[in-house]
Design brief:
two-stranded antiparallel sheet
């Protein structure tokens, strides 16, 4: 599709002014509806799109790029980074798309973001919100749009429900995002130096359901979905309540992190205890490591993460394995004794002096050294609860 240049002009600072509304828009809803019918798209889907986006389809990608004052190449990079397929030169974009392009490119022009960082912002935002949107449509919205009366279709109920929910969900999304941004910013500014802002020392843990592959062959899809959802919900709540961060969920496995090894240890032990007390849940195993971690787009990478994953794969059922660095950090912070013999000596010495003996929350037991693929020989430590002093 070519662009009609007769109605567009160059404004101040060399930017191209937006082209006029399409002729179908000027002729009114009847002609627009005819155009929609000709395109073969579902009228309700188009109405829902317009309701959610708050604007009508108006621009081709080329027109949107010109109106935003950016190159087509950069606009395409932003569009793909957000997770959307190429649309050729279909007139499918709205004024909101143009505004988003202007905002991102404006941050680059102002020197606040590099072009690569702006693309990364688009990608991270797109990936996160795509998952949220899929969940809301598949689970949340599906349940709310059950026809209330015989004879009514779900499509007849969907539009008014979305119309009512949209502003409330939008406000809540912004609120949660600001809360998460504040928490993340607080962690970053506490870093001791600039390097630590990117490469930080963290405790990283994987919690994995045992025998999940066998379960997939025995359970119905709906039952399996309910089990995974219950596991992810329980894990997410426990991680958040104890001050950790849920990095991602992988169906039968969750990845979490914490700034403090003691916090991570408490999360792991509570996960094991909680799942063990639920007869509907399979057994669980957890592997954790402590060390330098690279963070990118909300995810974590590096040798520490790989080691935690390997320890999970060799952990006994309903048990927690940690690496040597994790064990030493627990000992250094007083969360665990070097050995039970030393703990007994410390308790005897405190009693002799009339003082309170040291309280340890965890116990550590060295396991046999073993080779771990890609990481050489490691010495895992079995982590158990010694004295639950936390409630």
């Amino acid at each position: 599709m070519t662009v009609d240049d007769t109605g567009s002009g160059t404004g101040a600072h060399g930017r191209v002014d937006p082209p006029p509304l399409s002729t179908s828009h000027e002729r009114g809803d009847t002609h627009a509806a005819d155009a929609d019918a000709e395109s073969g798209e579902d009228p309700l889907a188009l109405r829902l799109e317009q309701l959610i986006l708050g604007a009508e389809r108006r621009y081709t990608p080329f027109q949107a790029a010109r109106s935003a004052g950016v190159s087509v190449e950069l606009a395409t990079r932003f569009w793909r980074a957000m997770g959307f397929a190429d649309i050729g030169q279909a007139k499918a974009l709205t004024e909101a798309d143009v505004l988003a392009l202007r905002r991102l490119s404006g941050l680059v022009e102002a020197g606040l973001l590099s072009e690569a960082m702006a693309v990364q912002v688009a990608r991270s935002t797109g990936q996160t919100t795509a998952r949220l949107a899929e969940w809301q449509i598949d689970s949340f919205l599906e349940g709310l749009t059950e026809p209330p009366e015989p004879g009514m279709t779900r499509t007849e109920v969907t539009y008014p429900i979305v119309e009512l929910l949209l502003p409330e969900l939008e406000e809540f999304l912004v609120y949660v995002w600001r809360r998460q941004l504040a928490a993340s910013a607080g962690r970053v500014v506490q870093a001791t130096d600039d390097e630590e802002m990117v490469d930080r020392r963290l405790a990283v843990g994987f919690a994995d359901l045992v025998g999940f592959t066998r379960l997939t062959r025995r359970m119905e899809e709906e039952e399996l979905g309910e089990l995974v959802e219950a596991f992810e919900t329980t894990a997410a709540d426990l991680v958040a309540a104890r001050g950790g961060r849920l990095i991602k969920t992988l169906g039968d496995e969750v990845l979490f992190a914490a700034d403090d090894a003691g916090v991570a240890a408490e999360i792991a032990l509570r996960l094991i205890e909680t799942m063990a007390n639920d007869e509907t849940m399979p057994e669980l195993r957890v592997g954790m490591a402590f060390g330098t971690v690279t963070t990118r787009m909300g995810d974590v990478f590096g040798t520490t993460v790989n080691l935690a994953s390997r320890l999970t794969s060799i952990a006994p059922r309903d048990a927690v394995l940690v690496d040597g660095a994790f064990a030493q950090e627990l000992i250094r912070t007083g969360e665990a004794p070097v050995s039970e013999a030393e703990a007994a000596e410390a308790a005897a010495a405190a009693e002799k002096e009339g003082e309170e003996p040291p309280t340890y929350h965890c116990a550590l037991r060295p396991m046999w050294q073993r080779p771990v693929r890609g990481l050489g020989v490691v010495e895992p430590w079995l982590l158990t609860r010694r004295d639950d002093g936390r409630q």
